[in-house]
TrEMBL record:
It comes from the Bacteria. This is DUF3397 domain-containing protein. Pfam families: DUF3397 (PF11877). InterPro entries: DUF3397. Keywords: Membrane, Transmembrane, Transmembrane helix. The lineage of its organism: Bacteria, Bacillati, Bacillota, Bacilli, Bacillales. The chain crosses the membrane at residues 6-27, 47-64, 70-88, 100-125.
Length: 126
C-alpha cells in the first residue's frame, strides 16, 4: 500500500512538467497573450518542476541521489551568467541576469528531461 502511494507520487512528479507546461501555455494563450509571451510564461512557471523531475528521474534510473549536486550546479551556472553579463556590460542588472539564468535552466532541464525519458523508455524495453 505504501509502495503504491510512493510510486504514484513519483509518477506525478515525473509526468507533471510536460502537462503543466502545456496547461500554462494553453491558459496564457487563451488569455489573449501573444505566442512568445505565453511560451515565456509557461517556461517561467514550470522550470522548478523540470528540475525536480530530472532529479527524481536520475535517482530512479541510476540509484544515486543528485539533490545536493543540483543546487551547486545552479549556483555555478548563475555565477557564470553574472560574470558574462559583467564582462559584456560592466554593470550587472541582477533582474536581467536572473531572467537569463531561469530561461537557461528551463532549456537545460527540459532537454535533460526529454533525454532521460527517452533513455528510460529504451532501457525499459532492453
Amino acid at each position: 500500500m505504501i509502495i503504491d502511494v510512493i510510486a504514484f507520487i513519483i509518477g506525478i512528479i515525473v509526468t507533471l512538467p510536460m502537462l503543466a507546461t502545456w496547461g500554462v501555455y494553453y491558459i496564457a494563450s487563451g488569455a489573449g497573450w501573444n505566442q512568445w509571451k505565453a511560451i515565456h510564461t509557461a517556461a517561467n512557471w514550470t522550470t522548478l518542476l523540470y528540475i525536480l523531475a530530472v532529479s527524481t528521474m536520475l535517482y530512479m534510473m541510476f540509484g544515486i541521489d543528485y539533490v545536493e549536486m543540483i543546487p551547486v550546479f545552479l549556483m555555478t551556472l548563475f555565477i557564470v551568467i553574472v560574470v558574462i553579463r559583467w564582462k559584456r556590460h560592466t554593470e550587472v542588472v541582477f533582474s536581467k541576469a536572473f531572467k537569463i539564468f531561469w530561461r537557461v535552466c528551463f532549456l537545460l532541464f527540459a532537454c535533460l528531461y526529454g533525454l532521460l525519458a527517452i533513455t528510460g523508455i529504451i532501457g525499459h524495453f532492453l
